[in-house]
Amino acid sequence: MDRPNAWLNYQFEETEELESVAQQYRAFLDAGKTERECVAEIVRLAEAEGYRDLADILREGKVLTAGDKVYAVCMKKTIALFQIGKKSLTEGMNILCAHIDSPRLDIKQNPLFEENELAYLDTHYYGGVKKYQWVTLPLAIHGVVAKKDGSLIQVKIGEDENDPVVYITDLLIHLSSKQLQKKAAEVIEGEKLDILIGSRPLSKDNAQDDDEKKKNKKDSEKKIKDAVKKQILKLLQDKYGMEEEDFLSAELEIVPAGKARECGLDRSMIAAYGQDDRVCAFTSYLALAHTREAMEKTSCCLLVDKEEIGSVGATGMQSRFFENTVADLANACGMSAESALRHILSSCRMLSSDVSAGFDPSYAEAFEKNNAAYLGHGIVLNKYTGSRGKSGSNDANAEYVAVLRRIFDENKICFQTAELGKVDYGGGGTIAYIAALYGMEVIDSGVAVLSMHAPWEITSKADIYEAYKAYKAFLKEA
Length: 478
Description:
29% of the residues lie in helices and 23% in strands. The protein has 478 residues and is an alpha/beta fold.
């Protein structure tokens, strides 16, 4: 069953809206390269649309009614937004759920070292990465440093055009005969992903105060031990008031430096870091924000952390955050949460808004063409993900797929169905199976991506726009 190319359906007015959505999306990617930054940006956007913190509503003892908009945040890394519908919560919600974490390199807790007068930061990669893709790129440092006094230092280095960038070196081709004989998974080892951050040693004048200079005139020519490392520490102290031990309570992430860009001579695509899964996260949020009238059912946009490492931890989908937040929401709607919660959750419908692998003609052998996702052909429905024998998947029921087909067709939304590559080639999972544990109907539904999990990924503007339209239609009619 051939699905049409979405670009062929657009009139001028729709193309203008498509470009507006793509422009807003690029701005979101530039503002949110970490999960903390994504949540902060979503809160900023949501409050401008009239959303209020659910904690404030509960504190004030207010009762939520149809049309009210609230949000809740967990540890600055996960956010749930709700627009209250006309029907009781016990009749369920329509939920768009995506993740905002992306593969990256995390700075270790004791990372700073000097080797042969070069200073490095030691890293531990996060999520599924091809390690060789991360070398010889301009990289940026994003994150926070928590001080013992309770203060939090925001760090962002490498994004402004006047900022320095950091870098991971590779062996020159002239000496790499042995390296090139290794398997791709081994050509760059995890412990070799050290970030080069400096080469200038600290001078004696900078290292000592006036009394020390007088005392050490005789041995002024002696070399300072780890002088490059000490220079880096001095720079960190001067700019951030940061000591070496502050790395112990820091969350610093290494990501590709640079802004999201239009891709292709026809400007039909977007090239950027972190599109898995921020492309679905942003379009999910935008769909909710642009659905301004009170709907029949309560609508929810849930953006979670830790999907790339199994949805674990307090900010992952396996935590109780969403469950607890829905209980608070029920209380704010004047309901007895204990008796209503399981009925609410089991009556929900969800789109697990996650990306799909786009068919790449350069690697056609990994795909089964009749069940592959194609760039420009609209939002992708994955009835099941998992690997090989559907291991780890949520296999959506046929009735739910039929409901979505009707909604998308009636709203003239381009959609396609796909699997994640050939059956025995591998596979991957999403958060869909976790949501299904509540008994709700859920299916994976997202945007096709080329070079998924690479430092720079490619998406089609048409697919981004179709996802936005599909999510709006789902919230209104599911």
